[in-house]
Design goal:
heterodimer, A: 165 residues, mainly alpha, 6 helices, 0% strand, B: 524 residues, alpha/beta, FAD/NAD(P)-binding domain, Cholesterol Oxidase, domain 2, 2 domains, four-stranded antiparallel β-sheet, 28% helix
C-alpha cells in the first residue's frame, strides 16, 4: 500500500465509522448479469463518500437515483463508446469479483469501502491506459450524475434559478 | 418571452422534425446546408435573403427561449454532442460542442473576438490565404452589427474579476470581452441556452430571419453521405435520429440541390466527407484538427465567488498567447462554474472531492487555452470513422504541448495568488491545494506531464477541412469551395488551417459572410 492509498483507507474508515455508514445492499457478486449495474453499485458508495446524505434512507435513495442517472446518460454516447464501456464494465466486474474472492466476501455489499477505494486508486495509478481511462471515465459519470440532481446541492449552498418557470 | 421559431412556424414558416417521419422522402432545394451553427445559419440567412430556396439541416433538436432549463442534467443531453461527454479517442480530452438548432452558438459563452493578426499572417505564409484584418474588416463589422457584438459594459462577476485583479497586480495584459448579447440580464446560464433570448445565437437571429425569407429548417436529421460523380455532388442521403440522437436507418431522406454546404462542425464535417469518400488528393481531409486543449486551475478565496452567476466570460488575458520563445502560447479565460461542470473536472476522490465541492461558492477557476498548430510538433488530431461511421478524434499529445501546459499551470497559479487566493489547486491528479505561490511553483514543476493525470478540456474544435490557395495543401479553397467537387462548400470551423488563439465564433461568422457573398455571386 502506498502513502496515498493509506490515506484514502484511513479516511474512509474514519468516515464510515463516524457516520454509521449504511451499506448498500443491492447486488451479490453472483447475482447480477448486468455488469454496469454491479460495478456502479459497488463503486458509488465509495466515490460518493463524504457527499452522500447521512440519513440511511436518503442515502439509499440517493445511490439508486445516481446509478439510474448514470445508466440513463450512457445512451447518449455514440455506439462505439457504449460498446467500449460495456466491455470495460465486464472487465471491472471481474476485477471486483477477484478482489471479493481474495477477501472471501461472498456478497458485494460486504466488500469494505476502503477496499473499493483502493481498487479505484489502483486503476488510476495503473500502467494500463484502459484502467486509467476507466478511473477518469467512471469518476466523471458518477460525479456528473450525482451533482446533476438538485437534492445534492444543499451542501454546495446553490440552487438553480428558473427564469421561465 | 417569445419562442421565435415556434411562433414563426405557427404563422407558416417551414419546419420539419425529421424524427416524426415514418416513410422515405425526397426533397429539392437550391442550396442544402448541413448544420445550423455559426457557419450554416449565417449562410442560410444570406442565401435566403438573396432569393435562393434553402434547406437547413440540423442533427440536434429545436429548443429555444422558454424551452431552456437552467439545469445541467437537462441541458447537456439535450444541447451538446454526446451529452457533453464527447472525448478524444483515448479519452484524454473532453470536448464541449453544441448539437442543437443554432449549434454551438446556442450554448457558447458569448465571447466574440476578431481573428488575431498573427494567425492571419501565419495562414498567409503557410496556406496562401489572401485576407488580412483590413480586407476582412467589413465582414467582421457586418457580423458585429448583425449580432450586436460590443464590449461588455457591466462590471465582471467575481470569477472574471479575479482574472482581472491578478493581471493588474502582475502588470499583465487583459481585455474586456466583446459579447453578442442584446438585453442581457447578466444571469450566467449562457451554456444551457439563453432563457431570455438575449444571447444573439443563431436560433434568435439568422435562423428566424432565413425562415422568414423562406428557408426550411429540418431538425433531428443526420446527414450520412454525399453522392457524387464527375466532380459534382448529385444528392445528399440523410436519416432521422432517435430520441438519444442516434441515427435511425429505417427511414431514408434524399436531398437534391444545385449547391451543397457542409457546416456540421470541425468533427462532423470531415466525418460526412470521409463517409462520402470525396476526392482527397491533398490527404488533409480529417487531418490537422485543433482543439485549443485547455488546462484548468482552481483557487479558493475567502470571499464568495459564485461563478455560476453573471456573464460567464467578460475578461481575458493575452499575456502569454504569443510568447517570444518557441514555446506554445496560451490564452487565459475563466469558465462558468456550475455543479456538474465543476464536479466532473475537479480532482480528488471521495472525501477530498466532497470537501472541495462544499466550497463551491468560494471556488474561482481559470482556464488556459493552448494555441495548437503553428508548429512542427503541433499538427493537431485526425478524424477517424467508427464501424458505425461515427466520428472519433484521435488527438496525440506532444512534449511541446505538455511544456505549454506546464507553463500555463504556473501562470494560472501565479495569477490566482496575485489576486488574493488563499490556496490554489492545479487540476491534475497529482496536485494538491497549495497555500503559497512558492509552494505551488515547486510542486507544479514536479507534476508528471501525462494524459489522464492532467485534466484537459476543449470547447473549440477547428480544422479538418482546411482552406488553402493551393489544392495540394488543403481541402477547400479560400472561398470555402471544395477543391475537387464543384458544387460543394464547407462553411464552418473545419476550414481553419490552425487554431486561432481566440474563441472562434466571430472568425466563423466573418469567413462565412465573405464566402457566402462570393457564392451568391457565383450562383446567380
Amino acid at each position: 500500500m502506498n502513502r496515498r492509498q493509506f490515506i484514502f483507507r484511513s479516511l474512509a474508515l474514519t468516515v464510515a465509522a463516524s457516520t454509521g455508514y449504511a451499506v448498500y445492499q443491492y447486488q451479490s457478486l453472483q447475482g447480477s448479469d448486468n455488469a454496469a449495474v454491479l460495478v456502479l453499485d459497488a463503486l458509488l458508495p465509495a466515490v460518493l463518500l463524504g457527499a452522500l446524505p447521512a440519513d440511511p434512507v436518503s442515502q439509499q435513495l440517493s445511490l439508486q437515483q445516481t446509478r439510474d442517472a448514470v445508466l440513463d446518460f450512457l445512451v447518449y454516447l455514440p455506439q462505439h463508446q457504449q460498446q467500449q464501456l460495456e466491455q470495460l464494465f465486464q472487465l471491472l466486474q471481474q476485477d471486483l469479483a477477484r478482489l471479493a474472492l481474495t477477501g472471501q466476501w461472498l456478497e458485494l455489499a460486504d466488500l469494505p469501502l476502503p477496499q473499493r477505494l483502493d481498487l479505484l486508486v489502483s486503476w488510476r495509478d495503473s500502467y494500463f491506459s484502459l484502467l486509467q481511462q476507466a478511473f477518469s471515465g467512471l469518476r466523471e459519470l458518477i460525479y456528473g450524475a450525482f451533482y446533476g440532481q438538485p437534492q445534492h446541492w444543499l451542501s454546495l449552498n446553490y440552487t438553480a434559478p428558473e427564469f421561465n418557470p | 418571452m417569445k419562442n421565435l421559431i415556434a411562433d414563426g412556424v405557427a404563422a407558416g414558416w417551414s419546419y420539419l422534425d425529421a424524427s416524426t417521419l415514418t416513410a422515405d422522402k425526397e426533397f429539392e432545394a437550391d442550396v442544402v446546408i448541413v448544420g445550423s451553427g455559426a457557419g450554416g445559419a449565417m449562410a442560410a440567412e444570406q442565401l435566403s435573403l438573396a432569393g435562393f430556396k434553402v434547406m437547413l439541416l440540423e442533427m440536434g433538436a429545436l429548443y429555444e427561449g422558454k424551452d431552456f432549463q437552467q439545469q445541467e442534467r437537462w441541458a447537456y443531453p439535450a444541447l451538446y454532442q454526446d451529452g457533453a461527454g464527447r472525448k478524444t479517442l483515448d479519452q484524454s480530452i473532453g470536448i464541449l460542442q453544441g448539437r442543437t438548432v443554432g449549434g454551438s452558438t446556442t450554448v457558447n459563452w458569448t465571447t466574440s473576438i476578431r481573428t488575431p493578426d498573427k494567425t492571419l499572417e501565419y495562414w498567409r505564409a503557410e496556406f496562401g490565404c489572401d485576407f488580412n484584418s483590413d480586407n476582412l474588416a467589413p465582414y467582421f463589422q457586418q457580423a458585429e452589427q448583425r449580432l450586436n457584438i460590443h464590449p461588455w459594459p457591466v462590471p465582471p462577476n467575481a470569477n472574471n474579476d479575479k482574472l482581472k485583479q491578478g493581471c493588474e497586480a502582475l502588470g499583465w495584459q487583459y481585455t474586456v470581452i466583446n459579447r453578442n448579447v442584446s438585453g442581457c440580464a447578466n444571469l450566467g446560464y449562457c451554456g444551457m441556452g439563453c432563457p431570455i433570448n438575449a444571447k444573439q445565437s443563431m436560433q434568435v437571429s439568422a435562423i428566424p430571419s432565413a425562415m422568414q425569407a423562406g428557408a426550411m429548417l429540418i431538425s433531428r436529421v443526420s446527414a450520412r453521405e454525399l453522392k457524387w460523380q464527375n466532380g459534382q455532388v448529385q444528392s445528399l442521403v440523410a436519416v432521422p435520429v432517435d430520441p438519444h440522437f442516434q441515427p435511425d436507418f429505417r427511414v431514408k431522406l434524399s436531398f437534391k440541390a444545385k449547391h451543397y454546404i457542409v457546416a456540421a462542425g470541425a468533427i462532423g464535417s470531415p466525418a460526412l466527407l470521409l463517409r462520402s469518400k470525396v476526392p482527397n488528393p491533398s490527404g488533409r481531409l480529417g487531418k490537422h484538427t485543433y482543439l485549443h486543449p485547455s488546462v484548468i486551475s482552481g483557487a479558493l478565496f475567502d470571499e464568495v465567488i459564485a461563478g455560476h452567476s453573471g456573464a460567464p466570460q467578460s475578461i481575458y488575458s493575452d499575456q502569454f498567447v504569443w510568447p517570444s520563445t518557441a514555446r506554445m502560447g496560451f490564452k487565459l479565460e475563466v469558465p462558468p462554474l456550475h455543479p456538474v461542470l465543476m464536479a466532473t473536472k475537479l480532482t480528488g476522490l471521495a472525501q477530498s472531492h466532497a470537501a472541495l465541492m462544499q466550497q463551491f461558492n468560494q471556488l474561482q477557476v481559470v482556464i488556459a487555452l493552448l494555441r495548437d498548430g503553428f508548429h512542427a510538433d503541433s499538427q493537431g488530431g485526425t478524424v477517424l470513422l467508427s464501424d458505425q461511421g461515427e466520428p472519433m478524434l484521435d488527438y496525440p499529445l506532444s512534449d511541446y504541448l505538455w511544456q505549454g501546459a506546464q507553463d500555463a499551470y504556473l501562470a494560472m497559479a501565479e495569477l490566482q495568488f496575485a489576486a488574493g487566493a488563499k490556496s490554489v489547486l492545479p487540476i491534475h491528479q497529482d496536485a494538491q491545494l497549495y497555500s503559497s505561490w512558492k509552494q505551488a511553483r515547486e510542486a507544479i514543476k514536479a507534476l508528471p506531464l501525462q494524459k489522464y493525470r492532467a485534466n484537459l478540456a476543449s470547447a473549440h474544435v477547428m480544422g479538418g477541412c482546411n482552406m488553402s490557395a493551393n489544392p495540394t495543401k488543403g481541402v477547400v479553397n479560400l472561398q470555402g469551395r471544395h477543391h475537387q467537387l464543384e458544387n460543394l462548400s464547407v462553411f464552418d470551423g473545419s476550414v481553419l488551417p490552425s487554431s486561432l488563439g481566440a474563441n472562434p465564433q466571430l472568425t466563423i461568422y466573418a469567413l462565412t459572410l465573405r464566402n457566402t457573398a462570393a457564392l451568391v455571386k457565383a450562383l446567380k
